[in-house]
Amino acid sequence: MRIGWYINRLRGMEPAEVLHRLGEQRRRIASRRRDDGWERFASPQLHPVLHGLRDAALAATPAQRQATAAAAQNTLGGQFSALGRTWPRRDSDRLFPPELWRLDPVTGRLWPGPETHTFDIDFRHGGDRGDVKYVWEINRLQQLPPLAAHLLLAGDDRSRMAIEAAIDSWHSANPPFRGVCWASGIEVALRAISLIVTMDLVGDRLGAATRQQVGEILAASAYWLPRFPSRFSSANNHLVAELAGEYLIGLALGTDSDAARGALLAEARKQILADGAGAEQTPTYAAFTAELILLCAAAARQAGTPFPSPVEARLAAFANFVAWLPPAAGFGDNDEGRVLTLGDDPDYVRSVAAAIHGFLRMPGKAAAPDDFRALFFGTPSEPAPASHGLQTFTQGGLSVWRGEMNGRGIDLTFDHGPLGYLSIAAHGHADALSLTLCVDGEPVLVDPGTWLYGSGGVWRDWFRSTPAHNTLNIEGKSQSIIAGMFNWSHKAAAALVESEPGTHWKLRAQHDGYRSRFGVVHQRTVMHQADGIVVTDQLLGGRRVAEVVFQLAAGLGTNRDRSTIMVRRGDEPLMAIRFPDAAVEIRAGGDAPGQGGWVSPRFGARQPAERIAWHGEVGEDGIKIHLAAIPPS
């Protein structure tokens, strides 16, 4: 498995990247010999980064105060939950034992600690230790800013003691550059950002020893991040996080941060496309990228060196993109990465969009009343009108229609974008020409989700495969060929070939993912008619036995009348799907991928859900499937 991973990874590299990786390996070997111990990283004087943060936090609304207090009380009570898992509860007098930073809450096993250099740990193939995502999550120290805000707002001295205990424990258990917590630059950066925000909120209330430890962690991080950057095929959201960390650490340490700033500005325009969609083809990673850039933009503005208007324009474009997305919209990977959080963050993408509108003083949809990010960035200047009609995001490759059908509100998406970003398309799914559909704001036809990364095994492959998505597949094969947990050996190219606006709009798109193996191109036309939406699938260049899938949201059921499937929620009918004939199977769950339908509502969780699949021959003449909302009773 490891040899295969390296072979497939090398196939995704250009010669320049291979040379870069060789140089990186030389630096790693040198690091093993010399880069140890806190004594090399004397604590400098720390400077405020987010100058107005404390005053903004003190203006918190009652709802924000209550939510912040609840998050702080969870931490003070020894609780931590993330990625669909809850860590073992700790006693209040021993909140941060040294083994906490190495514990996998799923397997109960410990990852290597200070006895092992970080580059000697194979975190990609953790074996029986579990998914490294879990152990990294608690090491981001994102529970500290809510504690700091609670200390500031309520004067709860237990929060101060908990912050000091956490920093002391982490500092002692994770010397540079030992253990699994230093293995990834994005983790180093997010941890540093948590510490910077904490210090800006309550640094003057923390003891001298704690401030020194924070300074040492930031100094070590400032040394580490530029030595091992994510470049070439790895230069996705990881690089944005690393550059954001470098830039903010530079401000905190009072050192030159111009290089990191310039590189971050360049990445902002690469990874948020001109139409606002994310280059990685996943709304949640786009929101994560936007939140990192937004935090740095706030720091730059307060330092008197605001980011240039083209970068702010990209942030505004992303917020506009989000305004068009249906409720609970998701596609591509989602590992629930956040920058500022109280913990559970169910409407993260819209929260970031509201924060952007608040920062730019633009109209928009406000986030929830208890939204934590609003403390940092403010709220939209006024409500924005709801978006209706057909909108196509050309660069992102997504069309959205919002309208009414038979007295029901409908949100539909049609994906005609690329697989993902850069040569390995790490976080993309093989979902070209797939649909999602909401009825009255509730998901009905859904993207299946993510499930797990490193420990996902065959299920990781299933959740990003074509047969798991609402599109056509041939012989159960994916349009793009999976070659590792975050890699593809062949990538389908999709394109929108026709778009007719108007009351009875029409969209037509193609992808070539099956051309080399099956000699055909998949073309899908989605057309709005008076009595519903007609989906026409064609295989140009030949005839093949194919499967057309509609994955339902969890909790929905079906009734069948020959070739018509009625989708219902409880006893309420929502939508009728009429197929060309009765060759339709409906299955949910199963012990192995492909036996039935599954959805992953969040990282680390999965639920059985009905998967409707039509089977039959498809050629250039195509097959038509009719979708119609059922009028409410």
Automatic annotation (TrEMBL):
Subcellular location: Periplasm
Matches recorded under InterPro entries: Chondroitin_lyas (IPR008929), Hepar_II_III_C (IPR012480)
Source domain of life: Bacteria
Pfam families xref list: Hepar_II_III_C (PF07940)
The Heparinase II/III-like C-terminal domain, residue ranges: 389-618
Main location: periplasm
Keywords: Lyase, Periplasm, Signal
Protein name: Heparinase II/III-family protein
Organism of provenance: Mesorhizobium onobrychidis
